[in-house]
Recover the amino acids of this structure.
């Protein structure tokens, strides 16, 4: 018994990612084809070379057929993956394990979501028949409870907390402005963001992830085969996943200032990758900033900041592009947008660009050339009841 | 001896200032305020609250749990299916306790009360009504929304305090029936229509006098022996006429709560009787007269046990506890003013089979208790036993205001609540303004209708602030103790 990981046994050798945004002129099939073709080209392979596919979509399609049809796959195994907002990451995780097992030589993980055909703003969960007693609040409302709880626990004045949250959004909007694939490409000042009307607790729309259509994909092979496809493969150092049991919702000791599922996934991932001091060893982190308070708590749960200090680190610029450890250099969910099933692979795409030196100079992380490890963190659910995924990728 | 062994009432929190009607409707309105069922209430949920109040007050006094349930309303949430079955589930009554509806007419309330009185053993009558008129109408202004429940049972009658649970014995009940069309409403219509007022006044005044004469004769007393006269009915002029003609001195005629609550139709007889019993002393004789397609006259005499009875949230406390609702919002809630709906998907309809499997949780608010004593809401598969948490008081740990979520009356107020008896639940709050929510606030559970999809009502529980200044309102109170000794949370009555 034990979580051993597959460190250095599987490598990503090709990636692709569409622009995220309101693609009124594109359906799920168009997004899939665009991301897949970019990825095939990136690795220099064809769809026939890929032995098996894992297709992540939270609620835009059902079954592997939804991938096999637009790609015109012939006699290929395709598994549809769903795990809330961690769907795309879990597709990669399964593809990587399939290759590590020896079952396949080459696998593709692809995540896609078409959310803007629903007719409503925001994300809307597919309704599962139930007894009608499930919570009716939005994710924004659930996560909004984190901010006052955090401020109270650590004695942060509410005005300072609001500023720190705005600073997270401002940072990510700035990074998004520099990213041609991002949904939102405009700077917002802390003052502008603080003046926005609230929609849930103290959060405004600008504290929430962008709601976007998009797709992203990766091709994985055994590490020893990687150099056949690229000079700069990304080795998979760790993959960890925790599905919470929901106890946090009913636990009187849970205080909404940490996500235990994330801390547990981080411990597993760091053990797999042999990382002792993540803040010093990681070159960057892509974290699941679905709402601004989430990013603050995540940096602590991931060990990038001490408990109760992340809000100060945000204000002092530790996580900026030119900071000590850049967080969400591509704009994050906030500015890059959040097509649910694609987001986890989008995070890895940024690691792919940054570690390989392919990110444009104006968006290059401060740690480039000095550190070679990137972390992606992808969650689904709510405080007290969430799925949490972490990958650690390294330049091979 | 058989009679009333307990009562409970529910006056909804929202109150409409009648003076606000005329500015919008151009006519109507008046003085005072009326009760308004909130957007998440209907006759079933209000009835459930009244029934819970009756049982919470009566059982500690020695009354037995009801062995039958009779539910009456003019405005049933469902046709064809039994609304009393919802109450049965909320009250967690035994499976072999029959639960029946008597719906449609205002008079069905007297049928429910009479059935409960005549049924063997402990029996519960629940009456509930929402009264709506066209904007600017008299019915709109005078009407009210409320529920009232009466528990009936027997005792040994020796006044020795050993099982003397009857609070008011029924000495006589006489009923006369006459067919005439004074007020009518086709099923589904928003408002009633009325014949010329003088005709109904004429018929009801005569019918009321006839029933009173029969009842007093059966009880062997005359009008001078009546300590309190209660006259219920939707024909206001006829009610006044019967009061005048009754021979009961004016100072003994019970206030009808019109100014402060309104006339809640089918709920009025039990509501006014409850208010009267809350003011009465032992040994008083009460005459209840109801005017509806005839007249019923009931003579009751209060017992010595009444002195010790502590109602759960007395009528006067609930009258004083309301909060304002604007006329526009009232019209919207009644479906008389369509407003822009939330731009969110409507909730999916409730799965009947899932709701049936989980009825203990959904309707009874049952918590699970595991071997280590931990309380879980909802119950989990590993729990060893179940207990009802419906009467628990909790404290707000944190909360948020959600302006994005689907709600029939946004914004949605959502809180994490820790219950005194153990367990935590994230839940929606109701009967509260967002600005009045605070961490540390005390919350009680109330049974509500969350939404309706495909005609299926989604009933479940919400939290609402504890407002009556009782012991339950302080964070250091021990709800387990207050339950154990049966102490009520209502204000003590003055004798």
């Amino acid at each position: 018994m034990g979580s051993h990981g597959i460190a250095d046994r599987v490598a990503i050798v090709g990636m692709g990612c569409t622009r995220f945004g309101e693609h009124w002129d594109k359906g799920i099939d168009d997004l899939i084809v665009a991301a897949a073709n970019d990825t095939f080209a990136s690795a220099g392979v064809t769809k026939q070379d890929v032995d098996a596919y894992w297709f992540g979509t939270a609620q835009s399609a059902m079954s592997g057929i939804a991938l096999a049809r637009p790609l015109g796959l012939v006699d290929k195994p395709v598994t549809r993956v769903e795990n809330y907002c961690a769907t795309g990451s879990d597709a990669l995780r399964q593809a990587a394990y399939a290759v590590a097992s020896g079952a396949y030589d080459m696998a593709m993980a692809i995540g896609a979501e078409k959310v803007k055909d629903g007719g409503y703003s925001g994300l809307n969960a597919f309704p599962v028949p139930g007894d009608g007693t499930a919570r009716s609040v939005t994710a924004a409302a659930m996560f909004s409870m984190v901010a006052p709880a955090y401020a109270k626990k650590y004695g942060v004045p509410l005005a300072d907390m609001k500023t720190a949250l705005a600073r997270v959004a401002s940072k990510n909007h700035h990074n998004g402005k520099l990213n041609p694939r991002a949904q939102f490409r405009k700077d917002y000042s802390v003052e502008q963001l603080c003046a926005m009307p609230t929609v849930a607790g103290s959060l405004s729309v600008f504290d929430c992830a962008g709601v976007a259509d998009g797709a992203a994909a990766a091709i994985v092979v055994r590490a020893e085969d990687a150099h056949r496809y690229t000079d700069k493969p990304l080795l998979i150092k760790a993959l960890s996943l925790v599905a919470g049991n929901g106890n946090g919702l009913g636990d009187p000791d849970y205080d909404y200032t940490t996500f235990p599922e994330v801390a547990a996934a981080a411990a597993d991932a760091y053990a797999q990758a042999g990382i002792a001091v993540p803040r010093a060893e990681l070159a960057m982190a892509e974290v699941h900033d679905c709402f601004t308070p989430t990013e603050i708590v995540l940096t602590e749960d991931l060990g990038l900041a001490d408990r109760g200090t992340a809000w100060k680190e945000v204000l002092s610029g530790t996580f900026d592009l030119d900071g000590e450890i850049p967080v969400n250099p591509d704009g994050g969910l906030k500015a890059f947008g959040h097509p649910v099933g694609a987001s986890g692979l989008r995070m890895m795409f940024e690691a792919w660009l940054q570690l390989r030196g392919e990110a444009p100079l104006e968006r290059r992380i401060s740690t480039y050339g000095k550190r070679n490890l990137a972390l992606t963190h992808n969650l689904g659910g709510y405080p007290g009841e969430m799925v949490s995924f972490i990958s650690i990728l390294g330049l091979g | 001896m058989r009679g009333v062994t307990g009562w409970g009432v529910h006056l909804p929190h929202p109150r409409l200032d009648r003076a606000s009607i005329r500015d919008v409707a151009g006519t109507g309105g008046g003085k005072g305020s009326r009760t308004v069922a909130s957007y998440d209430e209907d006759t079933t949920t209000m009835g459930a609250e009244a029934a819970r109040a009756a049982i919470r007050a009566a059982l500690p006094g020695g009354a037995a749990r009801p062995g039958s349930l009779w539910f009456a309303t003019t405005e049933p949430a469902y046709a064809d299916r039994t609304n009393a079955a919802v109450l049965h589930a909320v009250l967690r009554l035994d499976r072999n306790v029959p639960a029946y509806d008597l719906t449609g007419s205002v008079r069905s309330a007297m049928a429910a009360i009479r059935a409960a009185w005549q049924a063997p053993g402990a029996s519960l009558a629940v009456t509930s009504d929402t009264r709506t008129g066209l904007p600017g109408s008299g019915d709109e202004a005078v009407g009210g929304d409320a529920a009232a429940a009466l528990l009936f049972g027997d005792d040994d009658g020796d006044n020795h305090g050993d099982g003397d649970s009857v609070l008011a014995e029924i000495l006589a009940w006489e009923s006369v029936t006459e067919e005439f069309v004074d007020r009518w409403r086709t099923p589904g219509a928003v408002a009633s229509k009325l014949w010329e007022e003088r005709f109904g006044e004429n018929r009801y005044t005569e019918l009321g006098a006839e029933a009173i004469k029969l009842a007093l004769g059966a009880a062997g007393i005359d009008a001078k022996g009546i300590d309190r006269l209660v006259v219920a009915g939707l024909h206001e002029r006829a009610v006044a006429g019967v009061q005048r003609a009754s021979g009961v001195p004016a100072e003994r005629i019970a206030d009808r709560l019109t100014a402060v609550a309104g006339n809640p139709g089918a709920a009025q007889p039990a509501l006014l009787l409850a208010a009267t019993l809350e003011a009465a002393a032992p040994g008083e004789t009460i005459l209840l007269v109801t005017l509806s397609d005839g007249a019923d006259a009931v003579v009751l005499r209060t017992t010595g046990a009444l002195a010790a009875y502590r109602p759960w949230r007395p009528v006067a406390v609930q009258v004083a506890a309301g909060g304002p609702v604007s006329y526009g919002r009232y019209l919207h809630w009644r479906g008389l003013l369509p407003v822009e709906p939330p731009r969110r998907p409507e909730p999916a309809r409730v799965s009947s089979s899932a709701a049936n499997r989980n009825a203990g949780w959904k309707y009874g608010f049952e918590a699970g208790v595991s071997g280590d004593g931990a309380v879980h809401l909802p119950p989990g598969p590993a729990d060893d036993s179940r207990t009802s948490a419906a009467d628990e008081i909790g404290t707000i740990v944190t909360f948020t205001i959600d302006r994005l979520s689907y709600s029939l009356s946004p914004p949605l107020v959502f809180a994490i609540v820790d219950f005194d008896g153990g367990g935590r639940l994230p839940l929606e709050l109701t009967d509260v303004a967002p600005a009045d929510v605070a961490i540390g606030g005390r919350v009680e559970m109330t049974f509500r209708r969350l939404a309706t999809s495909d005609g299926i009502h989604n009933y479940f529980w919400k939290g609402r602030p504890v407002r009556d200044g009782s012991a339950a309102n302080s964070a250091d109170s021990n709800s387990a103790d207050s339950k154990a000794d049966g102490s009520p949370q209502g204000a003590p009555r003055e004798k």
User: Anything to note?
Assistant: Residues 139-207+237-395 of chain A form a domain with the Peroxisomal Thiolase; Chain A, domain 1 fold (CATH 3.40.47.10). Residues 198 and 204 of chain A are 4 Å apart (CA to CA). The longest helix of chain A spans residues 158-177. The interface with chain B takes residues 118, 120-122, 124, 127, 129-133, 135-138, 140-142, 144-145, 148-149, 198-201, 249-252, 254, 256, 384 of chain A (CB under 8 Å).
